[in-house]
Specification:
The chain is an alpha/beta fold. It folds into 2 domains: about 120 residues, Response regulator (Rossmann fold, 3-Layer(aba) Sandwich), CATH 3.40.50.2300; about 110 residues, Winged helix-like DNA-binding domain superfamily/Winged helix DNA-binding domain (Arc Repressor Mutant, subunit A), CATH 1.10.10. Helix content is about 35%, strand content about 25%. It is built from 8 helices and 13 strands. The protein has a 5-stranded parallel beta sheet, with helices on both faces. A 5-stranded antiparallel beta sheet has the order 9-8-7-6-13, covered by helices on one side. The protein has a 3-stranded antiparallel beta sheet with strand order 10-12-11. Strand 4, helix 4 and strand 5 form a beta-alpha-beta unit.
């Protein structure tokens, strides 16, 4: 028996019951919700360790559920169940905050492995991290997965914040796609995969990374990314600084 509790948002009562029985058999606590609104009302009072949500639920889409969770519970991992295979749909799901996808009809063994993988990533630190990191107008606080840009607080999902930490603690260093994948996902990614590119694009947008603030996130096509920081344009107080606890 483990201590993880999983929330399942699935309107198919028969499938939800089968899924709950399967997860209980693996030692997980499970709460099933037949509607997204019931889940969202409950999650305001208590968090779960993992959310499994169907793409299509009657009252809200799985995308809308993930967007809400990402806004108010950025560290809650999630897996989306879907029969969709279109590349654009997958990208939409990743942009909304999904950590992984499992295709319907669900293969129990694959689901079990995906759950273990997601929980392992979220409950193990990517690396030993300082209390805070300062670079230019940015201040990163690992304890809250928050980035401060000037006076604006930007709360990021755990995966996105971990990626930001990698870049901000390695300014002007080229980080390969394989290095990012191995460090953040614990695996090698296929060359054609857009997973890393999607997360980088989202990070660039959320943190407003562009040359006007002296820091930009640039791609070397087919290889990786560099957080380009113009050190000469920054005053001494803006130099890269890592403060240990």
């Amino acid at each position: 028996m483990n201590n993880y509790h999983i929330a399942v948002v699935e309107d198919d009562a028969l499938f939800a019951a089968e899924l709950e029985e399967f997860l209980n058999g693996l030692g997980y606590g499970v709460t099933s919700y037949s509607s997204a609104q019931k889940f969202l009302a409950d999650v305001r009072q208590k968090e779960c360790d993992l959310l499994i949500v169907d793409w299509s639920v009657p009252d809200l889409t799985g995308i809308e559920v993930l967007e809400y969770v990402r806004k108010f519970h950025p560290d809650m991992p999630s897996i989306m169940l879907t029969a969709r295979t279109d590349r654009g749909d997958i990208i939409r799901g990743l942009e909304a905050g999904a950590d992984d996808f499992v295709s319907k009809p669900v293969d129990p063994e694959i689901l079990q492995l995906r759950i273990k993988s997601v929980l392992r990533r979220y409950n193990g630190d990517v690396r030993a991290r300082p209390e805070s990191v300062v670079l230019g107008p940015y201040l990163l606080r690992p304890s809250t997965s928050t980035v401060y840009f000037n006076d604006e607080a930007i709360i990021l999902p755990k995966r996105e914040f971990d990626m930001a930490m990698l870049f901000f603690t390695n300014p002007n260093r080229l980080l390969s796609r394989q290095y990012l994948a191995a460090t953040l996902w614990g695996k090698v990614v296929d060359y054609q995969s857009r997973t890393i590119d999607t997360h980088v694009a989202r990070l660039r947008k959320n943190l407003k990374l562009n040359p006007t603030c002296g820091i930009s996130l640039n791609a070397l096509y087919g290889f990786g990314y560099t957080l380009q920081a113009d050190m000469h344009a920054m005053n001494p107080a803006q130099a890269p600084l890592a403060m240990s606890a």
